[in-house]
UniProtKB/TrEMBL annotation:
Presence of keyword Lyase: no
InterPro entries assigned to the protein according to its UniProt record, in alphabetical order: Beta-glucanase-like, ConA-like_dom_sf, Skn1/Kre6/Sbg1
A GO BP annotation: (1->6)-beta-D-glucan biosynthetic process
Domain GH16: 79-463
Main location, first listed in the record: membrane
Protein name: Glycoside hydrolase family 16 protein
Keywords: Cell wall biogenesis/degradation, Glycoprotein, Hydrolase, Membrane, Signal-anchor, Transmembrane, Transmembrane helix
TM stretches of this protein: 31-54
Membrane-protein topology: Single-pass type II membrane protein
UniProt xrefs under PROSITE patterns: GH16_2
Highest taxon, organism lineage: Eukaryota
Organism: Hypholoma sublateritium (strain FD-334 SS-4)
Cytoplasm found in the keyword field: no
Length: 512
């Protein structure tokens, strides 16, 4: 039976006899415990309060910001993180960090890729700056399908390989890689060291190194519909479909090749005539926007001389009558007329081609030797007369166009076309198309490979907002985000296919 009284032998219930009390202030163990608690509390307070205060008082901020011979990190205040991607490749030689431009200004390197790490992948998301596309490039009726697997790096080079194989109902596979919406630049000097594919005596391959305005993504037709290759700031006939209004000027109807119409353009979609509140990338609807194209090179073979040629071009719109841009000096200068000459192709209903071709040496093919090809350009929205582009082949100037090369044209009634003011991105590709040059299949050898040793971009020292795809005076980010489906689906080939209409043009309809 249970009761509340403890058993006589259960001493744990009453460890002390009745009336027993043994506290004393002179207890040694109590003082040791108290002292230990004090030490622990003091240590915690010192660590989290005392040390920060002491450090702040004894380490005053430096009176410099780390700008030194080493640049922004000259003081070493930022750690070197080996896997962090940088705009300037760590393998870029120190002696090419600056250059003097043809304009006499000092230029600083702002981007480089030396491709010294083998086995890089350029599938979407794999590289911070480059991305290879997976699509058919229908605008030029190409023979190949572009696949990301055709682009890699090997032996310190980017390699784009064209193979003869069945893919997506085509007989060839190749590669196109771009920096679209990842790396862009506004004005500068761009140099690419290339060994061209194939041989100088075999026609048909179409290697290219070029640049486009960021509002148009190469191969994504809806994004270039009404934007490529417009570079125009006026609000006049040049913004309209076919460059005409009510049938005027009449010369436009026969001002193209062989008496054909001058232009099949549907009009400048993002013109300076855009009505307020309409869909426009800004900075305001009164700023004409577009997608100009500057080609570093497009290479072909002169089959009469069996020698390689590179065309170095500016594609623009709207057009001069008969695509007859100003070829006279001082507007245009061809530096070595023994190897360089005005391109016989000057345009068609979808583009005006301001272009010069230059012969190159046979050694710069097949990975045997490399030549640097480049252009340097300048534009200033506040002083457009100063604009120019100068091209280079194998380190030598080939030709220069100025703003006067594409100045106002009274015959086609268009105003000044602009040296690009858009943020430009880079494109490297290896194509094949009858529209460019008929392939000599009897002698072409596959696989064919295009080798790129390096890509380097420079800008005038002191330029503001020169690097980036969303500069404040020519933004692109919001517009791209608002039309992301068109920039990510190459099967949407026109603006109308997305059930979209061009913004209202004040020359054609009321803005109210």
């Amino acid at each position: 039976m249970w009761d509340k009284d403890p058993d006589v032998d259960d001493i744990l219930h009453h460890p002390d006899p009745p009336g027993y009390f043994d506290f004393t202030i002179f207890s040694w163990r109590g003082w040791v415990n108290t002292f230990a608690l004090f030490v622990i509390i003091a240590a915690i307070l010192t660590l989290f309060i005392g040390y920060p205060v002491l450090f702040d008082q004894t380490h005053k901020p430096a009176k410099f910001n780390g700008f030194n011979a080493g640049g922004i990190n000259g003081s070493g205040q930022v750690p070197s993180l080996p896997n962090l991607p940088l705009l300037i490749d760590r393998d870029t030689p120190s002696n090419v960090m600056t250059r003097t431009g043809s304009d006499g200004f000092l230029y600083d390197l702002v981007f480089s890729d030396e491709f010294n790490i083998d086995g890089r992948s350029f599938y979407p998301g794999d590289d911070p700056f480059w991305e290879a596309v997976d699509l058919y490039y229908w605008p030029t009726d190409d023979a190949e399908w572009y696949d990301p697997g055709a682009v890699t790096t090997q032996d310190g080079k980017m390699v784009i390989t064209m193979t003869e194989q069945q893919v997506h109902n085509l007989n060839f596979q190749s590669g196109m890689v771009t920096t679209w919406n990842k790396f862009c630049f506004t004005t500068g000097y761009v140099e690419v060291s290339i060994s061209l594919p194939g041989q100088a005596n075999t026609a048909g391959l179409w290697p290219g190194a070029w640049s486009l305005g960021n509002l148009g993504r190469a191969g994504y037709g809806a994004t270039t519909d009404g934007t490529w290759p417009y570079t125009y700031a006026a609000c006049d006939l040049g913004t309209l479909a076919n460059q005409t209004l009510n049938g005027n000027p009449a010369a436009e109807s026969t001002g193209g090749i062989g008496g054909a119409p001058l232009s099949f353009q549907l009009g400048q979609k993002l013109s300076a005539c855009t009505c307020p509140g309409e869909d426009h990338p800004g900075p305001s609807v009164t700023v004409g926007r577009g997608v100009p194209e500057i080609d570093i090179i497009e290479a072909r073979i002169d089959t009469n001389r069996m020698q390689g040629l590179v065309s170095q071009s500016y594609q623009c719109a709207p057009y001069d009558l008969f695509y007859d841009w100003n070829q006279q000096s001082p507007a245009t200068t061809v530096f070595s007329d023994n190897i360089s000459f005005i391109n016989t192709y000057q345009g068609g209903p979808f583009q005006e081609a301001v272009s010069v071709e230059t012969y190159i040496e046979d050694q710069f093919y097949g990975g045997n030797a490399y030549a640097p090809y480049a252009y340097e350009y300048w534009s200033d929205p506040n002083n457009r007369d100063d604009g120019y582009i100068t091209w280079y082949s194998n380190g030598e100037q080939t030709w220069t166009m100025t703003s006067a090369t594409i100045g106002p044209n009274s015959q086609s009634q268009v105003s000044q076309r602009l040296i690009s003011e858009e943020p430009m991105y880079l494109i490297l590709n290896l194509a094949m198309a009858e529209s460019f040059q008929a392939p000599d299949f009897k002698h072409l050898v596959f696989p064919a490979q295009m080798f790129i040793d390096y890509v380097r971009v420079y800008q005038r020292r002191g330029i503001k907002d020169g690097v980036g795809c969303n500069p404040p005076n020519r933004p692109t980010t919001d517009y791209i985000n608002n039309h992301m489906a068109l920039y990510t689906d190459p099967n949407i080939t026109t603006w109308a296919m997305a059930n979209l209409t061009y913004p209202k043009n004040s020359l054609l309809e009321s803005c109210t």
